[in-house]
Design brief:
Helix Hairpins, binds adenosine-5'-diphosphate, Heat Shock Protein 90, five-stranded antiparallel β-sheet, 7 helices
Length: about 400
């Protein structure tokens, strides 16, 4: 404790009868000696408060020889105490302030980066994986921030991969549902017909004639064929779309492939005049022969469905730049402009007025387009004036 040295108001000596012998300072006789040894506060005539202390003085034989008294003004004690108190408050106040300022800077260095880490982690938790914590320090907090950034990047990569897988699964699921609903719809009619005619045939009570039985058996056979075609077409387009059926490229003679495709049809019974026209320049094309034959077969099949009797169906092969161009034209009912794109979509099978009864699976042109695209070519349909349509597709030369 810091104390200012107190002032002394007086010092007085007394004989053993307590009569004053001598004094220095402001001692006043009327104050007298204190009755006991206890210090006490007395009032001087000037109304000053004095702290009076007196003690006996002993001689060699331990007898009281006299007394000594000293007075201290209490003001100086109070002042000393006040000064002391102020000093303590100021000193502790300054110490506390220093500690607070130091803590603010030291904690700030730790807490601010931790706050950034916390904010980033909360954003990551909310799914925002693009959040990057700015890392500047090389201390433990810097290590935590770098680890968090690395973790967020890994999470983003995993999330990206999962999204891809999810997207694929969704597509597969959609295809499955699409197949199931289309299959249920498209297979119901043939199945009902097959079931109905099979039951009729097995009913012994009906006494069917041989001709009737043959007719019903024909219907069963053709409906079964239709179902088998639908399923095989569907599986084919799924394989092509999923990249499971890639073209086996070879240099082939397009005219020879066209003849093979046409050989499957009986143009005479259909009463259609079929012709293949090939430019002499088109000697070879690089393509998958079987796939190309399938494209031409589908297009000829469609043309025959729509071509009226005694009209022409023509297959032409020409060169245009680096492309070999194939076209199949008929003089049928043609295709309205608003359907010219749609007919290439899967399961699109327009139920149009005056359309031939022999409706297909709605997959024929979708397969055709997929195969042409696999070869890097394009396909479209245009009008074939004065009547009918012309399907035109290209097979580009391989660079
Ligand atoms: P579908 O099994 O119904 O024949 P496609 O994919 O082969 O399926 O053809 C889709 C639709 O395109 C047909 O339903 C028909 O409306 C139309 N179409 C295709 N070829 C021709 C053509 N040569 N003339 C007129 N319409 C055609």
């Amino acid at each position: 404790m810091i104390m200012a040295e107190p002032d002394v108001d007086y010092v007085a000596f007394f004989d053993k009868n307590k009569e004053i012998i001598t004094q220095a300072g402001n001692f006043q006789n009327n104050l007298g000696l204190p009755a006991s040894d206890d210090p006490k506060i007395v009032l001087t005539d000037r109304h000053r408060r004095i702290y009076n202390v007196s003690r006996p003085i002993y001689d060699d034989t331990r007898k009281v020889a006299g007394y000594i008294a000293a007075g201290f003004p209490t003001m100086s004690y109070h002042k000393a105490l006040e000064d002391d108190k102020r000093n303590i408050v100021v000193t502790w106040g300054l110490a506390l302030l220093t500690v607070l300022i130091a803590s603010y800077f030291i904690l700030g260095r730790i807490i601010r980066p931790l706050e950034k880490v916390k904010t980033a982690m909360m954003k990551i938790g909310d799914g925002d994986l693009t959040e990057i914590i700015p890392v500047s320090s090389r201390d433990e907090i810097g290590v935590i921030a770098r680890e968090c950034n690395a973790m967020a990047m890994k999470l983003a990569q995993t999330y990206h991969n999962l999204s891809d897988v999810n997207q694929k699964l969704t597509e597969i699921n959609e295809r499955k549902s699409e197949f199931l609903s289309t299959a249920a719809h498209d297979l119901r009619t043939p199945l009902t017909l097959i079931g109905g005619f099979a039951e009729t045939l097995s009913n012994k009570n009906l006494n069917l004639s041989g001709a009737q039985k043959d007719k019903y058996l024909d219907i069963i056979a053709s409906e079964t064929k239709k179902m088998a075609k639908f399923i095989s077409d569907y599986l084919d387009i799924t394989k092509i779309e999923n990249g499971m059926h890639l073209p086996v490229m070879a240099k082939i003679n397009p005219e020879a492939v066209a003849r093979e495709a046409a050989a499957e049809f009986d143009f005479e019974s259909a009463k259609v005049i079929f012709a293949i026209r090939s430019e002499p320049a088109v000697a070879k094309v690089t393509a998958d022969g079987e796939m190309l034959e399938r494209v031409l077969r589908n297009l000829i099949d469609n043309a025959l469905k729509y071509a009226p009797q005694n009209t022409a169906v023509t297959l032409e092969i020409t060169r245009r730049g680096r492309d070999t161009v194939f076209s199949v034209s008929d003089s049928g009912m043609g295709i309205p402009d608003d359907l010219k794109e749609k007919i290439f979509e899967k399961f699109f099978s327009a139920n149009r007025v005056n359309a031939p009864k022999k409706q297909g699976t709605g997959l024929g042109l979708a397969i055709v387009r997929s195969i042409v695209q696999l070869h890097g070519g394009t396909i479209h349909v245009e009008d074939n004036p004065p009547r009918g349509s012309r399907f035109v597709f290209t097979i580009p030369d391989i660079k």
